Amino acid sequence: MVTQPISMRPTRDLLLQLPLLPVTPDHRIDYEAADPASLVQLAENAETVMNTINMGLSAVGTLLAHAAP
Asked: What tens digit of pLDDT does each residue of 22-52 get?
């Protein structure tokens, strides 16, 4: 099994990958026609971006809780 290198810019990679997905005539993403490897990479980048957003939001909440008193 070959491991992919971890992306240093997952948000940028995610935004570059999204327009490359095939679409149906009614402008919906056609997941069945998409390359499985691309979908895996897209999912990994999306997961990394969401984890980063969640950690940042958690940090802001912690700061607000400590700044209240």
From this structure: 999 999 999 999 999 999 999 999 999 999 9
| Dihedral pair phi/psi, residue 9, rounded to 5° | -135, 70
Q: Going by C-beta distance under 8 Å and a sequence separation of 6 or more, which residues neighbour residue 13?
A: 7, 41, 45
Q: Ramachandran region of residue 24, left (φ > 0), alpha (ψ -120 to 50) or beta?
A: beta
Q: With b meaning 16 or more CB within 10 Å and e meaning fewer, what string describes 8-39?
A: eebeebbeeeeeeeeeeeeeeeeeeeeeeeee
Distance (Å, whole) CA 18 – CA 39: 10
Rounded CA separation 61/41 (Å): 30
Q: Give the residue from 16, 4, 11 showing the smallest Cα distance to 49.
A: 11
